[in-house]
Amino acid sequence: MARQTRERILDASLAMFNAAGEPNVTTNHIADELGISPGNLYYHFRNKDDIVEQLFSRYETRIDDALLVPEERLPNLEDIWLQLHLVFECMWAYRFVYRDLVDILARNRKLKLRFARIMTRAATSAAAMMRGLVRAGVMHASDGEIRLVAENVLLVATFWLSFSAVRGLRTEVESLDLGRGIHQVMVLIAPFLRDAERAHLSTLASAYSDDATRE
Amino acid sequence: MARQTRERILDASLAMFNAAGEPNVTTNHIADELGISPGNLYYHFRNKDDIVEQLFSRYETRIDDALLVPEERLPNLEDIWLQLHLVFECMWAYRFVYRDLVDILARNRKLKLRFARIMTRAATSAAAMMRGLVRAGVMHASDGEIRLVAENVLLVATFWLSFSAVRGLRTEVESLDLGRGIHQVMVLIAPFLRDAERAHLSTLASAYSDDATRE
DNA sequence: GTCTATATAGGGATAGAC
DNA sequence: GTCTATCCCTATATAGAC
Description:
The structure is a homodimer. Chain A is about 75% helix and about 0% strand.
């Protein structure tokens, strides 16, 4: 049953970190939630940071997978949309990482390095996708433009959940907001698309944009 | 001397919050730094939140001022640049607010409401500036495009400092990064500019873009 | 206004019994 | 593997002397 308890601790920690923010959840809270003793929790994990790092490893595996660029053929808009969907689903599942990103990484040097690597991979992936669109004739942009836009894609994606939490008055960020996040990323590349594709995009977008910018 | 001590506490708190993050600075740290007793600190402020709220009020006054849109005439690119500069300088001065934004606002409902108001003002200001550029013939964009781009302007500006801290390996965000942040915001509107202005912009930008995306 | 001393609470973590 | 008990430490906050 050791394995099971360990997993239960990780699952509960993830849920509680996501709900309240990692800094606001103590090891005692986690033990209470599971109905186990704090001592038991510390039998399975060295300390709280150990739990965070294990969860980060899960996250890392999943985001690495989501960032794989299919090399077989030239990408189209649907490919981008699909990949963004995978990435945003992953960010949503591990949103505690993004909620207190700066603080978490500042307190843990190892995680900072690992996250920096993910960002580099993401930048490469985003630029590759856009260069694919250019080669496919769907998009028109110079390498310099692509580099700058890719950086903004990273930024918007990374902080979309935080932005969503802070913008407006809702206390809870809802899973619904993911679609709007994907849309806001697409807005970054829309100006560089061929007219037909841009029109196609704004059709897809109208579903989201209805209540996109109200407060 | 009461007034002076109060101000000294606020100044030291701001510096320490900015340096280490508000959650990582205790009232004892602040008292130690100033060479006063914790009791003295609590004579001047009800609690730590009181200090945070007073600093937030300073920030609020300054950002409100920076967000004022000059109504006299149609804006040009330099006006945008200047306003962004004022806004980014303010964000830099009170960067502790942005470093742990989600957590701080989640823990203090009043601040959440006040920040939401600032965001609404900022969105209005950004959209107004862009509509001004359109009327001046410098920019070409529909109202719908402006609304969406304004939202991304808000997001990039709000989280630029966090992004900068998390991207790459430097521990410290430097004041130098402000220029790059302004540049990344300009990248958002560049695709909608007339050719002449876009060229002008990329000339201004070359100073920043040299080491913009290295890791 | 400022200090010293202290109350109170909570979090992280460990020892040792079972 | 799990629990009970506990230690240590730090943070917030207050009381009362000066």
